[in-house]
Specification:
Elements: E1 11-17, H1 23-28, E2 36-42, E3 49-53, E4 56-60, H2 62-65, E5 68-72
Antiparallel strand pairs: 1-2, 1-5, 2-3, 3-4
């Protein structure tokens, strides 16, 4: 599953990245494999999304969120 597919309020754990293009940038922002993420808010038109990761809020565009591969933690 990709972060861009997660719904507001859902939690998941980062497994890795779909490509290496944004991998370093995302890891510098706290999106490290093993970290738990929660989707906090979704913009009215769906882009960007706000997530909580590594203890802080982060806004990502859907094309960035599409690169983050997840393991779901809850069923919504």
């Amino acid at each position: 599953m990709k972060l861009s597919q997660l719904k507001q309020g859902q939690r998941a754990r980062i497994e890795g990245f779909a490509s290496s293009d944004l991998e370093l940038k995302l890891m510098e922002m706290g999106c490290i494999p093993g970290e738990e993420v929660v989707v906090e808010q979704v913009a009215p038109l769906g882009d960007p999304i706000s997530i909580r990761v590594a203890g802080y809020s982060l806004s990502l565009r859907l094309n960035e969120a599409d690169q983050i591969l997840l393991e779901p933690l809850d069923k919504h």
